[in-house]
TrEMBL record, chain A:
Transmembrane segments: 6-23, 44-64, 70-93, 113-134, 146-168, 180-199, 225-246, 267-289, 309-334, 355-376, 382-407, 414-436, 442-460
Protein name: Sodium/pantothenate symporter
Cell compartments where the protein resides: Cell membrane
Pfam families, A to Z: SSF (PF00474)
Keywords assigned: Cell membrane, Ion transport, Membrane, Sodium, Sodium transport, Symport, Transmembrane, Transmembrane helix, Transport
Length: 487, 52
């Protein structure tokens, strides 16, 4: 057991929780209040909140692990898509989502296509978020097993139960504020770690040479081309198709702040991936990747090798706390999806608040158990698992959403066909593995696109009212406006 | 007619990187295909500044 790190870990987790409670009680009562209070939040804080909500540190750990295990170009492909998340979302849907007035993805689908599409969307979010728990649990199990000196399986089970209790106790209030702290700790931690690595290797060029000396394939493309293309696609679309706070940022802040926050959050992402290159090179230069049971552990090995126990403790605590708040947000999304959006909305409109809460809690426990069982023997590297989540959501939601915004003719039948067709194709490809790793969305999302277009054209167009709504997304005059100005 | 124009630029740049995919040229021991993806990070940030 790493005593120093374990003590820091305990203190850190208690402190961040208390800070979260203090700030939330003082300022706002819920997460939605936090985002809608965006006008009082400056661009810089908004950028950090957006960055922290979107970037989960398990994916940071996974990105570094994949850069060492599969060669640095794989980490570059990860960043190639991930740094583009915010610009891509900003350019393609931010203004339109703002004018539509919705806050979440399923809400948009309800407004544009009706209840049936919303129901399918909620089901897809629940499946996607349940699987997204697996990389979170894998990452926390690796950190926990190192710091606490217990075996990986025990660490996954203990931390999985801990996450569920934290979320069930009403972790919502702490998410957003502690996210800001974790986001800063991550960024500063990565900066300090990068500086320490560069100093130890006498600069960037010698560092790369040391990495190549220890891992000769460090600079090579080691996977089929389709894997890099698929990973890029899955991350590029992540902001648009993930039910995270990205949409809420554009929906509830004033336009200027929302755009500037997204721009600065893109810079934070860029910095994390530049530091990621240095950390991965430091990891490769250790030459221990092949000796690890799980290659995602390389990030922890780098921290252990280059940092003093005090700094390592803070860094690992920051990582684990950030994973905890991500897992917390996922569990809450899953429980709200089933209890509120499906049960109360469609199955039992008269359900009491107590019943809804109880169902939400039960769903949370089931999702955690599923996540823990898969994470005990994780099917793949963390980066691949996160790529699967992005690919699944892209294959299901990408084109029904984008065509819903840009094409008046897209209708309910087309959206349902595209969503279900894309999701099923993706799942079949993941299970049968006919192509390269993470290349599934390259096949599944065009199938979704074709289905949305063909089925929409074969069925009746959406009502005039819906089509006018689409014109309003683009601030275009509607028929009613034209008549008014002519009359 | 700005987001659509910038999305088109982003997609064209990523298509060039992925179609050219020069894996047989190396700088500092890392393949050029990798470096092109790495330097695209800065292009993406520049595009978001242009948009704002």
């Amino acid at each position: 057991m790493q005593v120093m790190e374990a003590v820091i870990l305990g203190v850190y987790l208690i402190l961040t929780t208390l800070i979260g409670v203090y700030f939330t009680r003082r300022a706002h009562s819920s997460e939605s209040d936090f985002w809608t209070a965006g006008k009082s939040i400056n661009t810089f804080v908004g950028a950090f909140a957006l960055f922290a909500a979107l970037a989960s540190s398990s994916s940071l750990m996974g990105a570094v692990g994949s850069g060492v295990a599969l060669g640095i170009p794989f980490l570059f492909a990860y960043g190639f898509g991930a740094v583009a998340i915010l610009p891509f979302t900003l350019f393609l849907v931010s203004g339109q989502i703002r004018r539509s007035g919705v806050n979440t993805l399923p809400e948009f689908f309800k407004q544009r296509y009706g209840n049936a599409v919303q129901l399918v969307a909620v089901a897809i979010v629940v499946i996607g978020m349940t699987f997204y728990m697996v990389p979170q649990l894998t990452a926390s199990g690796l950190i926990g097993s190192y710091v606490l000196g217990i075996d990986y399986t025990t660490a996954v089970i203990v931390l999985g139960i801990g996450f569920t209790v934290y979320a069930a106790l009403g972790g919502m209030w702490a998410i957003t504020y502690t996210d800001l702290i974790q986001g800063s700790v991550m960024l500063i931690g990565m900066l300090v770690l990068s500086i320490l690595i560069l100093f130890q290797h006498d600069g960037f060029s010698p560092l790369i040479q040391d990495a190549l000396a220890a891992s000769p394939n460090f600079g090579d493309v080691t996977q089929p081309w389709l894997s890099y293309f698929g990973l890029f696609l899955a991350f590029l679309w992540f902001g648009i198709v993930s039910p995270s706070a990205v949409m809420r940022n554009f929906a509830s802040r004033d336009a200027k702040t929302a755009r500037r926050s997204a721009m600065w959050a893109c810079l934070l992402y860029l910095l994390i991936f530049v530091f990621g290159l240095i950390v991965a090179a430091g990891g490769a230069s250790l030459g221990i990747a092949d000796t690890l049971d799980n290659q995602d552990m390389i990030f922890v090995s780098v921290i252990e090798n280059y940092m003093s126990p005090l700094l390592a403790g803070i860094m690992l605590a920051g990582l684990l706390a950030a994973i905890m708040s991500s897992a917390d947000a996922m569990l809450l999304a899953i429980s709200a999806g089933v209890a509120r959006d499906i049960y109360k909305e469609y199955l039992n409109k008269e359900a009491s608040e107590q019943t809804v809460t109880r169902i939400g809690f039960t769903v949370m426990i089931v999702a955690s158990i599923v996540g823990i069982i898969i994470a005990i023997n994780p099917p793949q590297l963390i980066a691949i698992m996160v790529g699967w989540v992005g690919g699944f959501l892209l294959s299901s939601f990408g084109f029904p959403l984008v065509l819903g915004i840009w094409w008046n003719r897209a209708n309910k039948a087309g959206a349902l066909a595209g969503m279900l067709g894309g999701a099923l194709t993706f799942l079949i490809l993941v299970i049968t593995k006919p192509f390269a790793l993470v290349s599934e969305p390259i096949i599944a999302s065009p199938i979704s696109l074709i289905l949305v277009i063909l089925v929409s054209l074969m069925t009746a167009p959406p009502s005039a009212k819906t089509q006018e709504q689409v014109n309003r997304y683009h601030a275009e005059p509607t028929d009613a406006d034209t008549k008014k100005s002519a009359g | 007619s700005p987001g659509i124009i910038l999305v088109a630029i982003l997609l064209v740049i990523s298509a060039i990187v992925l179609i050219w995919w020069p894996t047989d040229i190396y700088f500092m021991g890392i393949t050029l295909a990798g470096w092109l993806m790495f330097f695209s990070y800065f292009v993406w940030f520049a595009l978001s500044i242009i948009y704002v």
